[in-house]
Amino acid sequence: MGLKCGIVGLPNVGKSTIFNAITLGEAASSNYPFCTIEPNIGIKSLNDDRLNKLAEMVKPEKLTPTYVEFVDIAGLVKGASVGEGLGNRFLSHVRNMDLIVHVIRVFKKEEVIHVEGKVNPLRDLDIINTELALSDIEIISRHITKLEKIARSGDKTAISNLEFLKTINQSLSGDGSLVNAKDLSEEEKSLLKSLGIISAKPVIYVLNVDEDLIAPFTSNKEIDGVLSAAKAKNIPAIKLCARLEEELSKLDNADKKAFLKDFGLERSALDAVAAESFKLLGLITFFTQGKKEVRAWEIKNGYKAPQAAGTIHSDFEKGFIRAEVISYEDFLKAGSETSAAKMGLLKLEGRDYIVKDADIIHFRFNV
Predict the structure, then answer these.
(1) pLDDT tens sequence across 13-27
(2) Among 187, 282, 323, 329, which residue's Cβ finds the most Cβ atoms within 10 Å?
(3) How far is CA 59 from CA 31, 63, 346, in A?
């Protein structure tokens, strides 16, 4: 589906280090602003224990997980909405993303320059949110002017869209409320997407902390302040140490587990970021399995069987006959597709079947 997550934040907050950890990439990571000019692009597989368990059972020749594409976007600064620090260019990259991973610096390492002089996470958070809101206000205001001319003719769609955008602009201009916190209709979401409104996109806050603060129950006033701000806006917040995540990404599975255990962690924070991205975008996973390949596929929650089949190949959707479905739990219970069928756990579903998360499906089609 081409899920794109943009990593944004002020310069020198750890974006490129996080990107390297996510993708095992070689993004430049240096102690000066605007080290990244053109966005770095890489992919990270979604670490899904269910897929790994299926592979253990089926022993396929190939294992294919789902992927999230991460884009390391150059640091934004105060005044970005009016072009400061190449802001307009960088903001255009953000508009193409499905989701924003907002990196906030909490670590105190003095030798790493801070563009605002000293570390202050809430101030930094406000700078980025303000610049995104100002950029959106400018775009929405221009569209309002166009709609006002059309609305004078009595065009009902134009009148409805005009009132909606005025409400959004008032909210952004007033308390700075993010558009993504609102309950929008599909038509309203589509309009905002067509305009490239950044503050309508789902957001995850990533707190880049010193290594002595990555354990689950450790905190300080800066972390507590950001977590409170995130909770007030219903935004998920994940704590990590970028440098340690980069080290972790280079280890094999056995060493990773030992590494995480030393810090009191169950999984990589970046795995949590990828999983939360799926959740925020309303995605679920279904599986196909066989001796040649066990594979995970991402789809929108609510997809019916033919739509899910179409993610594999358009011919599957066009010629859809039925879906042979086994729930993940039933597959574990049965041990194989053959056993599941004998136990009556394999269900034959038609066009109206809504695919559930972790369904194991074999599609029958004819073209």
Answers:
(1) 988 888 888 776 543
(2) 323
(3) 46, 9, 20
